[in-house]
Amino acid sequence: MSGRGKLIAVIGDEDTCTGFLLGGVGELNKNRKPNLLVVEKETSIAEIEETFKSFLARSDIGIILINQFIAEMIRHAIDAHMESIPAVLEIPSKEHPYDASKDSILRRAKGMFSAEDFR
Amino acid sequence: MRVDQQLRLDEQLLLFMDQLEALEEKRHKLNSLIEEGWFSIAKARYSMGNKQVSSLQYASEMEPLVYIETSMLEDGTAEFKCERKENKTEELKSNTIEDIGAKETGLRRRINTIQKGVKEEDQETDPQGKTKAESGESTPEHRDPLKWFGILVPQNLKQAQSAFKEVITLSAEIASLQSAIIAIRKEMQGQMKEKQQKTEKTQPEMENE
């Protein structure tokens, strides 16, 4: 199974979104919904979660980039996502540097080792 | 069989560790590139003005210039590859430049040799030439998000753009690595459970002896 021409979605603060748009990931036209969400102080958690779930439901998105501090707000939704595509990548923000211990993927990988495994 | 299984587990564990190390390295690089991008955007904002580099400048219509090619492997791992549309825009630019050049030399020759009647004709073809050039050029210019911020943008904004382009390519590699790590983890968990079940079966046999 393969897919060509999938998009990169971004859920981040203004500078993160500006940067990725400069990189050329943005899609916005009258017919389709945008593939990014600029999160500001006024943005509600419900809106972030709804946007995240809508990105997951779309078949044309390959990777979702999300600032880690925003991912913390909707951690339950991110942990519930088990499929390989779209991939969810947590990225740092200006005020919140990347913390590997909070990353969903690394927590899942870390959780495999327990004392019983080494008997 | 058991020794083979253990050897295989050991190999998988080593591969898992290698992949984790590679992931950490790429993450580190991604984080520093993103920070570089933010600094460049901040410097550009300082020179251009606060409101000149913000979400107010986003175009009302955007077309993506980078796509992700996804493929699923047999072991359940997903691979992500980054594809850019830059080559096509460069080809368009070179075609339009050639066309303009040819038309201009043709026009120049005609104007040099003649009179008003023909000059009028040249003027008619001229705007047509220009409109064709504009429509040819406008697609690559329209596509470059750098143009949303003005015609002459500071070098810092271009540096930010190149930093984020690299970040996008790295993101695809990290996504592939993450998928591989999760797949290996699942396989190892399955094999460890099998191993545990076997040791539990053999333990009562040993006790009976």
Summarize the structure.
The complex is a heterodimer of chains A (119) and B (209). With 119 residues, chain A is of the alpha/beta class. Chain A has helices at 14-23, 45-57, 68-73, 75-79, 104-110, and strands at 2-12, 36-38, 61-67, 87-91.
Number of helices of chain A: 5
Sheet with most strands of chain A? 4 strands, parallel
Please give the order of strands in the largest beta sheet of chain A: 2-1-3-4
Q: Averaged pLDDT of chain A, please?
A: 87
The amount of beta strand of chain B, in percent, is: 5-15%
Number of strands of chain B: 2
GO molecular function (chain B): unfolded protein binding
Pfam families (chain B): Vma22_CCDC115
Subcellular location (chain B): Cytoplasmic vesicle, COPI-coated vesicle; Endoplasmic reticulum-Golgi intermediate compartment; Endosome; Lysosome
Region (Disordered) (chain B): 114-145, 189-209
List the helices and strands and how they pair.
The complex is a heterodimer of chains A (119) and B (209).
Chain A lengths: L1 E11 L1 H10 L12 E3 L6 H13 L3 E7 H6 L1 H5 L7 E5 L12 H7 L9
Parallel strand pairs in A: 1-2, 1-3, 3-4
Chain B lengths: L1 H47 L17 E7 L5 E7 L1 H28 L2 H28 L11 H54 L1
Helix pairs in contact in B: 1-4, 2-3
Subunit structure (chain B): Accessory component of the multisubunit proton-transporting vacuolar (V)-ATPase protein pump.
GO biological process, one term (chain B): vacuolar proton-transporting V-type ATPase complex assembly
Pfam family, one (chain B): Vma22_CCDC115
